[in-house]
Write a structure and sequence with these properties.
about 400 residues, mainly alpha, globular
């Protein structure tokens, strides 16, 4: 674990990590807070589904736009304005009293202006940390701690609801976004960071062919995660233990946390782009046993195993983004990773719902393995990606 000690010992590193995680907690709080708030005002599940999807879609669209603005104008102004705007969106939702038009406008504002804290932190590490090894370790730590957000966020929503009700949870979601972002912006590396000079191009980082290949691969990974969210719930109902879904997803997140920390704790041979195909292949292999639809104790173990290579895939992907993104576009490139992952998650949830309903649970549990295999095939078979690996010293 020496690499993590070195990362945390760097000046400002602990402040950056903690404040960034706090500011990103609404990523794990927002959807649940919206759902429970609207249900508390007796809104039906159909409009709730539409509004929750609108929130996710707005966030996916806003990320690359805000990332490009960060590359142009720096982090403090863009992050501050975005956080205040997103917080205002949640405040408007809290005051909407379940009015669907007002709530719709509110969730779009809250999602569209979600502060791009993830890409901003990843853009900072090369200027904060002393070596490429430390940067790679920071990416692995970030990928592992990301699981904490999606465990702690929903728990925080439930805790706030027990004290202040559904409206209070919406207020707190917005306030946490603002407080965490302002604390992050207060750090000196955030205020002094500037993107490298860039060549103007309408496609931004997407003009990089290796980056496009990587994003398609990560779309498949995001699809696998979206499928898991649905099939875990369906499995809980199948074994007459609805609460088991939370344990399955928690085991998967724990596996990702363990895998990410182990992966980042040492240097690995070969190039990052060459290693990515192997990591994706291992991720797919670990998904296949889930299709056995075994007894709950076995499925908990399989869920943990299926998460082991998720954080390493993301950590390796972050390093590759830094390698292949055109100069001056790195924040927008990292924002595209978030957007693609969200899009894949939504796609996986939609496909899984159809498959569970029409083809059964066993077939649905095959989907993550198929998506993971497709992700590995994309990078292994792409001529753009292979030539990029071959050209690297």
């Amino acid at each position: 674990m020496r690499i993590y000690t070195n990362v945390l010992a760097a000046p400002h590193a602990k402040h950056l990590i903690i404040s960034n995680l706090v500011g990103r907690l609404p990523n794990g709080m927002g959807a649940l807070a919206i759902v429970l708030f609207l249900r508390g005002h007796e809104v039906g599940y159909l409009p709730i589904g539409v509004l929750t999807a609108a929130y996710a879609l707005a966030s996916a669209i806003g990320g690359p736009v805000l990332g490009r603005l960060v590359d142009h104008h720096g982090q403090p102004t863009v992050l501050t304005v975005a956080a205040l705007g997103s917080g205002a969106g949640f405040a408007l939702l809290a005051m909407s009293e379940g009015n669907l038009i007002v709530a719709g406008v509110a969730v779009v504002i809250a999602g569209l202006l979600t502060p791009p804290l993830e890409p901003c932190l990843r853009s900072l590490w090369p200027s904060v940390l002393p070596s490429e090894a430390a940067v790679a370790g920071a990416y692995a730590l970030d990928a592992a701690l990301q699981e904490v957000i999606f465990v702690a966020g929903p728990l925080l929503v439930i805790g706030v609801i027990s004290l202040a009700g559904e409206t209070g949870a919406v207020w707190v979601t917005g306030l946490v976004a603002v407080a965490g972002t302002l604390a992050f912006v207060a750090a000196r590396p955030v205020r002094t960071w500037r993107a490298e000079p860039r060549t103007p191009h309408w496609a931004g980082p997407l003009r990089s062919a290796p980056l496009r290949v990587l994003l398609v691969s990560l779309l498949c990974v995001g699809t696998a995660i979206g499928v898991l969210n649905i099939v875990a719930a369906a499995y809980g109902e199948h074994v007459h233990q609805p609460g088991l879904a939370g344990y399955l997803l928690g085991a998967n997140a724990l596996g990702a946390l363990i895998g990410g920390l182990v992966y980042g704790a040492r240097a690995w041979p070969g190039t990052n782009r060459g290693r990515m195909a192997w990591l994706l292949g291992a991720l797919a292999v670990c998904y296949w046993p889930l299709a056995s639809v075994a007894a709950p104790p076995v499925m908990l173990g399989l869920a943990l195993i299926s998460g082991l290579f998720l954080a390493p895939v993301l950590a390796c992907g972050f390093v590759i983004v830094g390698e292949v993104a055109p100069t001056g576009t790195v924040t927008e490139a990292f924002a595209w990773v978030v957007t693609i992952f969200v899009a894949g998650n939504s796609l996986g949830s939609a496909v899984a719902g159809v498959v569970v309903q029409n083809s059964g649970l066993g077939t649905a549990f095959l989907l993550p393995a198929i998506a993971g295999t497709a992700a590995a095939a994309v990078v292994a078979l792409s001529s753009h990606y292979r030539s990029a690996v071959a050209a690297r010293p």
